[in-house]
Automatic annotation (TrEMBL):
Transmembrane segments: none annotated. Belongs to the UPF0702 family. This is Uncharacterized membrane protein YcaP (DUF421 family). Gene3D superfamilies: bsu07140 like domains. Keywords: Cell membrane, Membrane, Transmembrane, Transmembrane helix.
Length: 86
């Protein structure tokens, strides 16, 4: 038998690591600096929410963003035009 620290992980072991899904799929909200308001509305989010999240990662304007999407767990993935990933 393997020692406990060497045994393979079970579903019970990793269930605490799995993230909770807030949205069914990841959804694009900015494309080449343009906010996709239709997609924000589908997620029941608004521009104020988006702007606050952008400021949290150091992006001052959506015009500086090449691509952004809301992940299933509710977080925001941002790829800025200067190629810094947040």
């Amino acid at each position: 038998m393997l020692k406990e620290q060497k045994a393979p992980a079970t579903k019970g072991d990793i269930s605490t690591v799995m993230t909770k899904k807030v949205f069914p799929i990841a959804t694009q909200v900015i494309s080449d600096g343009q906010v996709i308001e239709k997609n924000l509305e589908k997620l029941n989010l608004d521009k104020d929410w988006l702007n606050k999240r952008l400021q949290q990662v150091g992006v001052q304007s959506s015009q500086n963003v090449f691509f952004a999407e809301v992940q299933q767990d509710g977080s925001l993935y941002v790829d800025s035009k200067d190629n810094l990933l947040h």
